[in-house]
Every structure is written in structure tokens, then in C-alpha cells.
Design goal:
This protein is mainly alpha-helical. The chain has 3 helices and 2 strands.
Length: 78
């Protein structure tokens, strides 16, 4: 167990949503979000159909860009 790992940012990606109908999928996602009781982002995707993948990819790109800007800002002398 590593406390620093526990404190790191996490995302939950639920795959195989194509196996559920839309109502069951949204109910399951809502239940997971409620059970987590925190700000962990939850993404529901289907690798087979591509559903939800574009949203996840866009958020990954945004996250990487944010980290790069933070790193660059730290490296530039004031």
C-alpha cells in the first residue's frame, strides 16, 4: 500500500456499455458515481462501438495539455 498512490488523481472507465440498454447503462453509471462519493470522473465507453470514446479521448487530451502548461509555467523564471 502506498499512500502517495492513493492520493493521485484517478478516472474510472467503464467498458462494454454496448452490452446494456441505455436505461440500465445510465442507472449503473449513476449508482457508481453515488458509491464513489467523490470527484472521480466516470466514463462509460464501448471499445466495440466507439460509444463514449471520443469524450474520453478529448478529456485525456485536455488533461495532458493542462499538465504540459503547468510544467512549462514552472520552468519559466518569474
Amino acid at each position: 500500500y502506498d499512500e502517495s498512490l492513493y492520493r493521485r488523481e484517478r478516472w474510472l472507465v467503464i467498458n462494454k456499455i454496448d452490452l446494456m440498454d441505455a436505461h440500465a447503462r445510465e442507472a449503473f453509471r449513476a449508482d457508481v458515481i453515488q458509491a464513489l462519493q467523490n470527484s472521480t470522473p466516470v466514463y462509460a465507453i464501448s471499445a466495440v462501438t466507439g460509444a463514449g470514446c471520443r469524450e474520453l479521448i478529448n478529456h485525456i487530451r485536455q488533461w495532458i495539455g493542462d499538465r504540459q502548461r503547468q510544467t512549462t509555467a514552472k520552468e519559466v523564471p518569474a
